[in-house]
Amino acid sequence: MPSFDAIIIGTGQAGSPLAGRLTAAGMKVAIIERNLFGGTCVNTGCTPTKTLVASAYAAHLARRAADYGVVLDGPVKIDMKKVKARADAVSGASRDGIGNWLGGMENCTVFRGHARFLDAKRVQVGDEVLTAGKIFINVGGRAILPEIPGLADVPHLTNSTILDLDAVPEHLLILGGSYIGLEFAQIYRRFGAKVTVFEPGPHLIRREDEDISQAVSDILTAEGIDIVVSAVNLAVAKAANGGIAVSHDGSNGLKTVTGSHLLVATGRRPNTDDLDADKAGIALDAHGTIIVDDALKTNVDGIWALGDCNGKGAFTHTAYNDFEIVAANLLDNDPRRVSDRIPVYALYIDPPLGRVGLTETEAKKTGKNILVSTRPMTRVSRAIEKGETQGFMKVVADADSGEILGAALLGTGCDEAVHSLIDVMYAKRPFEQVRRGVHIHPTVSELLPTLLAEFRPA
Ligand SMILES: Cc1cc2nc3c(=O)[nH]c(=O)nc-3n(C[C@H](O)[C@H](O)[C@H](O)COP(=O)(O)OP(=O)(O)OC[C@H]3O[C@@H](n4cnc5c(N)ncnc54)[C@H](O)[C@@H]3O)c2cc1C
Ligand SMILES: NC(=O)c1ccc[n+]([C@@H]2O[C@H](COP(=O)([O-])OP(=O)(O)OC[C@H]3O[C@@H](n4cnc5c(N)ncnc54)[C@H](O)[C@@H]3O)[C@@H](O)[C@H]2O)c1
C-alpha cells in the first residue's frame, strides 16, 4: 500500500498550491483528480465565463461604435465557434499549466481517478489504496438541479454544459437570478440571444441591497433581457414547437414563456455525496458541507477541508485563502484563521459590481450608528469619458469608530476600484485614511475619497 505524508483529494484552487507548499517543505504528497486539472474555476467557472464576458463586451462595444465616432459597416455578427475556441484555449492553457506543474513536481505523485475514504488514514483511488497521516479534501462542488416539475424530462444546461454550445441559442431561459444566471444572461444577450431570467426571490442577487439589485436589473433590462422576479411554482415542460416552456405564477396569474434552451443556475452543492466521508467519521451538515473549524480542520484529527466543500466561501479567492491558512498553520507557525477574512467578491456583469463587507441592510442590523454615502457613475469623470455611466457606488461606515463596514461599487472598473477600500479595511484604518489620500486622475478610484467625504447618517 503506497504511503505518503499527505494525500490531497482534488486539484482545485486550494489543492494544487498546497501540493506545491507541502512538497517544497519536504513532504511526500499524493494528489488525486478524477476529472480536469484545475477544477471548477479553470474549466467551468471563472476562466471560461470571464473569457466569454470579454467576447460579449467586445460585441457590445462594437454595436455602440458609432457613439464613439467609430464607423463599422454592417451589423455585428458573432462567430460562436471562434468565441468558444477562445474560451477553450484560455481554459486549456491554464489546465495544462497546472497538470504539467503537478506532473513535474518533485515528491508529488498524481493519481487520476475518483477518491473515496476507506477510513481516516486510507483513501482508495481505482485499484490503489493510499495511506497518509494528513489528508486534505478539496473536492469543490457542482450545480444543484432543483426539484422543479418537469426538469428531468427536458434538455437543460448547467454552467458546465452551456460551455459546449458553439451556436447562439435563439431564446435562453435561465432559472436563477444570481451570479451564474446573470453573468450568462448578459453574455448571451450580447451574443444576440433572447434571454429570460426567472428568480423566485423578490429581487435579483438577493444578498444585496434592493437599490443595488434594482440598478443591476435596470442595466440588464436596458439591454433587452426579460427578468421575472417573485417567480413561484416554477415548472418546465416540452413545448409544442419543440422548445422548452417555463411556467410560473406571477402577480398576473400563471404565465408560460417558451424558449429554445434552458440554463439551470440555482446554486451549487458540495461534491461530498460520493466521497464515503462517513467511513472516516468526517462530520457533514445537512447540505453535505464538510464541517470545519476556524483553521479548516474537520472533526477528525489529521483531516482538513478546503474550498467550496467547507461552506466557508464559494469563490476562487476564498479557496486559495484556505490553502494559505492551512499552509501557514502547518508550515509557518502562523495561526491564520478563516475569521481573519473579510467577505469580498464581484459580480461580472458589465459594468461589474465590486463588493466588500456588509450591505447597508446588514450594517443597519448591527445597531451601530451607520453612515452611508452614494454617488452615481454619471458623476465620475472616467465613466463619462468612457461613455459607461451606468450604476452607482455606495459605502457604509460606523460613525463612532470611523471603520468602513462595507461597500457596493457598481460601475465601470469597480471590480478593481473596490480594492482600495478592501485594503484599508484589512489595515483596520478609519475611512479618514482614504479620504485624505490623493488618487490618480482620471480613475474611478479617484472619487472614493470624495465619496467618503460625503457620508450622511443612514
Ligand atoms: C460559472 C461559474 C463562474 C464562477 N466565477 C467566479 C469568479 O468570477 N470569481 C470567483 O472567485 N469565483 C467564481 N466561481 C466560483 C469558483 O469557481 C469556485 O469557488 C472555485 O473554483 C472553488 O474551488 P475549489 O478549490 O473549492 O474546488 P474546485 O475548483 O471545484 O475543484 C475540485 C476538484 O476536485 C475534483 N474532485 C471532486 N471529487 C473528487 C473525488 N472524489 N476524487 C478526486 N477528485 C475529485 C474535481 O474534479 C475538481 O477538479 C465561479 C463558479 C462558477 C460555477
Ligand atoms: N462572479 C463570481 O464570483 C461568481 C460567478 C458565478 C458563480 N459564482 C459562485 O457560484 C456559486 C453558485 O452561483 P449560483 O448563481 O448558481 O447560485 P446562488 O446560490 O448565488 O444563487 C442561486 C439563485 O437561484 C435561485 N433559485 C433557487 N432555487 C430556484 C429554483 N428552483 N428556480 C429558480 N431559481 C432558483 C435563488 O433564489 C438564487 O437567486 C455562487 O455562490 C458563487 O460563489 C461566483
UniProtKB/TrEMBL annotation:
<dbReference type="Pfam" id="PF07992">
    <property type="entry name" value="Pyr_redox_2"/>
</dbReference>
<comment type="similarity">
    <text>Belongs to the class-I pyridine nucleotide-disulfide oxidoreductase family.</text>
</comment>
<dbReference type="Pfam" id="PF02852">
    <property type="entry name" value="Pyr_redox_dim"/>
</dbReference>
<dbReference type="InterPro" id="IPR023753">
    <property type="entry name" value="FAD/NAD-binding_dom"/>
</dbReference>
<dbReference type="InterPro" id="IPR001100">
    <property type="entry name" value="Pyr_nuc-diS_OxRdtase"/>
</dbReference>
<dbReference type="InterPro" id="IPR004099">
    <property type="entry name" value="Pyr_nucl-diS_OxRdtase_dimer"/>
</dbReference>
<keyword id="KW-0274">FAD</keyword>
<dbReference type="InterPro" id="IPR016156">
    <property type="entry name" value="FAD/NAD-linked_Rdtase_dimer_sf"/>
</dbReference>
<feature type="domain" description="FAD/NAD(P)-binding">
    <location>
        <begin position="5"/>
        <end position="320"/>
    </location>
</feature>
<keyword id="KW-0285">Flavoprotein</keyword>
<protein>
    <submittedName>
        <fullName>FAD-containing oxidoreductase</fullName>
    </submittedName>
</protein>
<dbReference type="InterPro" id="IPR036188">
    <property type="entry name" value="FAD/NAD-bd_sf"/>
</dbReference>
<feature type="domain" description="Pyridine nucleotide-disulphide oxidoreductase dimerisation">
    <location>
        <begin position="346"/>
        <end position="450"/>
    </location>
</feature>
